[in-house]
Write a structure and sequence with these properties.
The protein is of the alpha/beta class and 433 residues long. It folds into two domains: 176 residues, Aspartate Aminotransferase, domain 1 (Alpha-Beta Complex); 247 residues, Aspartate Aminotransferase, domain 2 (3-Layer(aba) Sandwich). The strands form three sheets. A seven-stranded mixed sheet has the order 4-10-9-8-7-5-6, with helices on both faces. A four-stranded mixed sheet has the order 1-2-3-13. Helix 8 links the parallel strand 7 and strand 8. It binds ligand KE4. Ligand KE4 binds next to helix 4 and helix 5.
Length: 433
């Protein structure tokens, strides 16, 4: 059944006249999965409706923030109460302290944190802090890792750059990325060799503790501990970019899951309950270097915005009940097993990578453990799969190099819906129709 998307098409043509690529973020453009972006009318619970009235089970969740689904009652109530008192003051509020205290309780390696308005801002600021604290300039990141669009990190990045095949963005002078070293993810030997040769000039290693921007790629058991040991030994800093994994895989984030402590952590997405937010935090001795208590400058008109903070507090309060994650894990497990069995029945080689309620499918018969193995998967088959799943009412992130998400608004029967839709989509692909 082909989708009727006339209104989306009209809006896309109109958008193209005034917005680059018709979208306000490249990965929304459906460039790598074909077709035009769907314009969304509304979201409710586990579902999205596009402007043509088509309903989808939302497995994109706005790229991660919506772990509770769309407009959860707790967030709506918090926002309607908060907005009556104003939207922003450019001055401190009590609820900013409350959110900061909640984060430091959930993630004890974060002794102090600064709220900003996006993950990009959080990462940019954390790296500036790391360079100031160590008086070094080299930064290590990993191929396929995406940490926002600040200049010095746009080298061999994941997410939209990977999807569009842009290894390094135009407009970033070579001098800016000269101090950015990019290594293969999950490859301990290569990191060890770099630290043997150059460890004392490295300010920080930044890593997605569970990669989400090459698709979902969990860390190998020795990877994160090795990064911790190597940075400790050379007085470099370890930065966990938990913009996706923070509050996604548990209230303690990936660092609690893998028992590896970071010196600095960046957060975003879920922390704002669907409103614009970012945060960076960590050891107090480091954070006290941030202006006005120290010489590292960072600022923001809407940092700690009361509406985003209120939505974040309401979200974290719901997530403080462990049963939420237990249910997400059960659904994730049911989905992973169902998708794997369905692919076998359809004789379609598929790898399902999953951690909790974040998952990705790769069309390949080989394990996907880093960016080069992710790129070896059949992205043309992923595009056909994505289109078929849309026709069957399942909205996956429109890119192979992204992670799909389950939300607590979903049910076991939604998992059955995804599995059944996937099975017939796999069969369609297997028949190479
Ligand atoms: P934002 O500036 O988009 O809030 O966060 C940047 C960022 C930082 N770190 C990680 C691990 C991230 O995943 C992101 C942003 N994620 C992408 C998709 N995976 C956002 C979607 C988009 O670019 O439109």
């Amino acid at each position: 059944m082909t989708l009727s998307t006339q209104k989306s098409k009209m809006l896309f043509e109109r958008a193209l006249r005034v917005i680059p690529g018709g979208v306000n973020s490249p990965v929304r453009a459906f460039k790598t999965v074909g077709g035009d972006p769907l314009f969304i009318e509304r979201g409710e619970g586990a579902y999205l409706w596009d402007v043509d009235g088509n309903r989808y089970l939302d497995c994109c969740g706005s790229w991660g923030p919506l772990i509770l689904g769309h407009s959860p009652s707790e967030v709506v109530a918090a926002l309607s109460e908060r907005i009556e008192n104003g939207t922003t003051f450019g001055a401190p509020t009590e609820i900013e302290i409350e959110l900061a205290e909640m984060v430091t309780r959930f993630m004890p390696t974060i002794q102090k944190l600064r709220l900003v308005s996006s993950g990009t801002e959080a990462v940019m600021s954390a790296l500036r802090l790391a360079r100031a604290a160590t008086n070094r300039s080299k930064i290590v990141k990993f191929e396929g890792g995406y940490h926002g669009h600040s200049d010095h990190l746009l080298s061999k990045a994941g997410s939209g750059l990977a999807s569009l095949g842009i290894p390094n963005s135009a407009g970033v002078p070579a001098a800016i990325t000269a101090d950015t070293i990019t290594l293969p993810y999950n490859d301990v030997q290569t990191v060890e060799a770099l630290f043997r040769a150059d460890g004392n000039s490295i300010a920080a290693v930044i890593v997605e503790p569970i990669a989400g921007n090459m698709g979902c790629v969990p860390p190998k058991p020795d990877f994160l501990p090795a990064l911790r040991q190597l940075t400790e030994r050379t007085h470099s800093l370890l930065i966990f970019d938990e913009v996706i994994t923070g509050f996604r895989v548990g209230t303690g984030g990936a660092q609690a899951l893998y028992h590896v402590s970071a010196d600095l952590t960046t957060l975003g997405k879920i922390l704002g309950g669907g409103l614009p937010i970012g945060a960076y935090g960590g050891r107090a001795d480091l954070m006290d270097l941030i202006a006005p208590s120290g010489p590292v400058y960072q600022a923001g008109t809407l940092s700690g915005n009361p509406l985003a903070v209120a939505a974040g507090i309401a979200t974290l309060k719901v997530l403080s009940d462990p049963k939420v994650y237990e249910r997400l894990e059960r659904m994730g497990n049911q989905l992973e097993a169902g998708l794997t069995a369905a692919a076998e029945r359809a004789e379609t080689p598929v790898q399902v990578n999953r951690m909790g309620s974040m998952f990705s499918l790769f069309f390949t018969n080989r394990a996907v453990t880093d960016y080069s193995s992710a790129k070896r998967s059949n992205t043309a088959e992923f595009a056909r799969f994505h289109r078929k799943m849309l026709e069957k009412g399942v909205y996956l992130p429109p890119s192979q190099f992204e992670t799909a998400f389950l939300s607590a608004a979903m049910t076991n029967s939604d998992m059955v819906h995804i599995i059944e839709a996937a099975e017939s989509s796999f069969q369609f692909i297997a028949r190479k129709e």
